[in-house]
Backbone:
């Protein structure tokens, strides 16, 4: 049992991506659960449906624009649901409810941090991204800067973010599916990898978006149902739920205030920065803004995404709190005093407690589906960085056809899918807790400063983008390696060189500083003056959308 | 990626109004969101005792404040969309219409 508990602490940590959560290292294999026929039937249904959609989408995917951006034909509402789906990962659903279950109030910090990035994207970036970009966020940077160095940086940074995010998802997926469906870890990882390759390679952005939309709908439905039934148990009184939780929890009143999970104030603030600004630099999220027709639809997407994600986090919070008394006190869901299958199973057990086997099977199937959908989005973003940025614009210097670019992109998807499977197998036994946290920190420190400075600062130039981008990227990765999460817990050193769990408080300012310094150093160069001169065209197009990609063709 | 500067747009009074109102709205709302979020984070980091003060039955101050941050994120986003849909799109259409 202790072994299983250890694995689940590790899994909880890897799914949550909270460096502070890295309490337990994943050691040994997870024991398999009994096979759940309801869950398997529902999951099989989901796979058939999504493969059907992929077939339909494949027939509609002809041009590069179809493949990367669904031809710009996604509506604001659809895109908003898909973006929310990217956010409602198994990590959010199972991980945050588990964190609330174990730490009470502190579970709320993660949800809030993930959510508040959205208004910032809306106020400063969404419309400009739509007006300036084509297929990837580096289009926006390359609009007035030198394509070679800027796209090389953006592609590397995107692939770093995507890889870290993917490792966490694949390892989490393998362990979760092993538990929910009784499949062996390796089979689970291969199934996720193969399905994801099919969706992305054949269906491109159209299939990826619709898989995400369907999954998001199912997850919202299942979670809402669970929460309504759970609240009914407490007579729809939040105070009754809190009282039962305090009574049932071994930590008693401490769950009602901060401090159980996060203690160091600097770490809390640094994590807050990474979560808020990291969202505005995630390549698979930014890419979604090119699937809508114009700035107005981009705005609608963000409003829908923010509302749905906010609603969803309130649901996970209630699931965690209701679980403290309804799961934590029911011997049916416990083994030696702890949650059977680990605290990540709280949401699944609660579904069983309030809705029986049917609801439990439904939520299990949706948890599997959610990993598939999120991993597909990541793969597409990675494939775009390879084909659109590296191949077409750096390697071929723009001298290639759209058809060839899409072919390269499909091969890149297959390559990335195989890479994801390999990474999932290699990292099975390792603690991957820091991976998503690192992805957010890199996105906040490297991509976000370059994007923001490029859109808002006239004197920003290629030297600034290269210096700031690489400085943010390298410092975020280096500080994470030196932090307690890796230096002590993974590498086994005695004390951490960098004492805080998240690097963003330091690495994001370094990214901005590099951008500013590099721009000043190169401000006399002829090329910098040319780039300054192009700012006006960028500025007018970012404000009005006149000349924007796709705007005229619809 | 070179795009020619469209003559006249920069001096179009509609464009000047668009950039001014959108800039002001965007940065003001960003500042409000930052103050609300980091206000909450700083309270959690430096005043955990205050956040654990019961305010309604057993419910502590932290929960309504957390809910307030979530709802304000949605409300500010919605406010921006309402303003943008009415004012910005009209100005943008006029600017585009003034293009030869």
Residues:
């Amino acid at each position: 049992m202790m072994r299983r508990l250890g694995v689940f602490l590790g899994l909880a940590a890897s799914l949550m991506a909270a460096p502070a959560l890295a309490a337990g290292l994943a050691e040994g294999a997870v024991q398999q659960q009994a096979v759940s026929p309801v869950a398997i039937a529902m999951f099989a249904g989901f796979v058939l449906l999504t493969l059907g959609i992929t077939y339909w989408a494949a027939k509609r995917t002809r041009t590069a624009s179809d493949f990367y951006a669904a031809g710009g034909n996604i509506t604001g509402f659809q895109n908003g649901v898909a973006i929310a789906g990217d956010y409602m990962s198994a990590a959010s659903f199972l991980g945050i409810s588990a964190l609330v279950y174990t730490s009470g109030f502190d579970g709320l910090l993660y949800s809030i941090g993930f959510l508040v990035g959205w208004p910032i994207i809306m106020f400063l970036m969404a419309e400009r991204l739509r007006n300036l970009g084509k297929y990837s966020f580096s289009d926006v940077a390359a609009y007035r800067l030198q394509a070679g160095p800027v796209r090389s940086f953006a592609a590397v940074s995107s692939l770093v973010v995507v890889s870290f995010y993917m490792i966490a998802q694949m390892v989490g997926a393998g362990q979760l599916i092993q538990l929910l469906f009784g499949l062996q870890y390796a089979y689970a990882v291969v199934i996720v990898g193969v399905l994801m390759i099919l969706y992305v390679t054949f269906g491109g952005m159209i299939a990826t978006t619709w898989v995400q939309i369907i999954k998001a709908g199912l997850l919202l439905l299942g979670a809402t149902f669970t929460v309504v039934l759970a609240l009914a148990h407490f007579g729809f009184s939040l105070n009754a739920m809190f009282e039962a939780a305090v009574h049932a929890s071994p930590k008693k009143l401490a769950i009602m205030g901060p401090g159980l999970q996060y203690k160091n104030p600097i770490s809390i603030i640094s994590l807050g920065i990474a979560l808020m600004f990291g969202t505005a630099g995630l390549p698979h999220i930014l890419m979604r803004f090119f699937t809508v027709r114009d700035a107005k639809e981009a705005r609608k997407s963000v409003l829908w995404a923010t509302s749905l994600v906010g609603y969803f986090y309130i649901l996970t919070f209630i699931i965690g709190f209701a679980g403290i008394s309804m799961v934590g006190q029911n011997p049916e869901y416990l083994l030696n005093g702890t949650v059977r299958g680990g605290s990540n199973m709280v949401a699944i057990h609660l579904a069983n407690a309030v809705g029986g086997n049917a609801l439990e099977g439904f939520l299990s199937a949706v948890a599997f589906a959610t990993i598939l959908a999120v991993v597909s989005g990541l793969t597409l973003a990675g494939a775009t960085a390879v084909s659109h940025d590296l191949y077409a614009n750096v390697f071929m210097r723009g001298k290639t056809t759209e058809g060839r670019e899409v072919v390269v992109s499909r091969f890149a998807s297959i390559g990335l899918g195989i890479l994801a499977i390999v990474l999932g197998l290699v990292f099975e036994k390792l603690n991957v807790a820091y991976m998503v946290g690192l992805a957010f920190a890199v996105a906040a420190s490297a991509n976000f400063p370059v994007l923001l400075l490029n859109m808002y600062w006239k004197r920003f130039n290629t030297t600034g983008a290269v210096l700031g981008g690489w400085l943010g990227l390298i410092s975020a990765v280096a500080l994470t390696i030196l932090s307690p999460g890796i230096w002590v817990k993974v590498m086994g050193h005695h004390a951490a060189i960098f004492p805080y769990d998240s690097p963003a408080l330091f690495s994001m300012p370094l990214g901005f500083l590099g951008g500013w310094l590099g721009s000043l150093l190169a401000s006399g160069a002829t090329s910098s003056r040319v780039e300054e001169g192009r700012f006006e065209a960028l500025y007018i197009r970012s404000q009005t959308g006149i000349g924007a990609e796709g705007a005229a063709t619809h | 990626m070179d795009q020619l500067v469209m003559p006249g747009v920069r001096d179009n009074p509609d464009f000047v109004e668009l950039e001014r109102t959108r800039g002001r709205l965007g940065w003001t709302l960003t500042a409000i969101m930052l103050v609300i979020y980091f206000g909450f984070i700083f309270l959690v980091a430096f005043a955990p005792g205050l956040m654990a003060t019961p305010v309604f039955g057993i419910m502590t101050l932290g929960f309504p404040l957390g809910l307030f941050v979530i709802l304000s994120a949605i409300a500010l986003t919605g406010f921006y969309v309402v303003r943008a849909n009415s004012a910005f799109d009209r100005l943008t259409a006029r600017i585009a219409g003034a293009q030869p």
